Amino acid sequence: MQPRIVYSTFLGCTGRGGGGRPSAAPCCAGWKDDIGFNQLQSRLGPAMPTGADIKVAQIETSVGVGVNYLPDRTDAQFVCKSINPLSGSAGVSCHATTVGNTILV
Q1: CB 3.0 to 4.6 Å from 67: which of 9, 27, 90, 99, for a disulfide?
Q2: Gap between the Cα atoms of 43 and 41, Å rounded
Q3: How far apart are CA 17 and CA 35, in angstroms?
Q4: CA–CA distances in Å: residue 4 to residues 1, 7, 16, 44, 98
Q5: From first to last of its 105 residues, what are the pLDDT tens digits of the chain?
Q6: Beta pairing class for 68-70 and 91-92
């Protein structure tokens, strides 16, 4: 599964191309390098935790009229995932779906 980028951060590239213009070359190796994941994975080797069977809670509130606070369960990211609406049935929230997809990356 490929990670989805849901936000971007300017990291201050200092590379310069010809004529003093910033170069088009990327300045970042990727999110796993940015956060030290690859270094940790190299260090731990086969003992690296997989994250399987971790329970996650997502708390949302209804915005506007009605009670639309649940992620879209038909989204491919939520296949084989349990969503338990503890505040009762509700409609789909675009925000809740985006946050849920971010958690599952």
Answers
A1: 90
A2: 5
A3: 27
A4: 9, 9, 29, 25, 11
A5: 444 444 433 333 344 344 444 445 555 568 888 889 999 999 999 999 988 888 888 888 876 666 888 899 899 888 888 888 888 778 898 989 998 888 876
A6: parallel
